[in-house]
Amino acid sequence: MITWHRRPLVGLDFETTGTDPERDRIVTGCVVIYGGGQPTEARTWIADPGVAIPAEATAVHGVTTEAARTAGRPAAAVVTEITAALVAAVGQGWPIVAMNAAYDLTMLDREARRHGVTPLFDLVTPHVIDPKVLDKRVDRFRRGGRTLADLCRHYVVALDGAHSADTDAIAACAVVWKIGLRHRWLTRLALEALHAEQVRWAYEQQSGLRDHFARTPGKEQLAATVRLEWPLIPAPRVGEPS
Fold first, then answer.
1. Rg value, the chain, Cα
2. Do the beta carbons of residue 40 and residue 48 sit within 8 Å?
3. Which of 18, 66, 95, 183 sees the fewest Cβ atoms within 10 Å?
């Protein structure tokens, strides 16, 4: 049997106007088909988010408000096409790979709802692989950071031009592949089982972070900001604060 590790991985990454999926917008996005014995294929988008891009966001990804308005396509069209690309990949039985998946997938969900596009999780039930969740599970006590750049250094993956959606999506897939290579027991899990385990691991990891903040002087207020859901934070109900 060919394991998921030997089949294509579908990388997803966004660069955005900020870090809050409930309020911020997609600026650039990438869906990449990686591995499976085939050349890497990356499809990228730039959107006009319909709002000004803060200077601090431009400093990260390099896209200005003017550039997005000039070169970007309507956000609704971009969200529709990205969702369709992911639906097609899920239909092939391929997993979606995203670093800190709850952020990217929640961002896509909220943008879809904002623009009247049917959300991804209303169309399919994807299996998701998150290199951050996997790394924390297989190397729980390693010192140092857990950003994508940190993981690339640890697993010896090239990361040229970080904070470019295509570069980050490809790197996330490469890190997942390297983790699977080092920890073969992960590759023996069926995708459905691996996804289910990550739901549990992410919950445990985020609970631990919440507890850490709650008992750390000066960081107590951060505990309330830690979400336990993975890989998608449910949309607020009407009347609930976002």
1. 18
2. no
3. 66
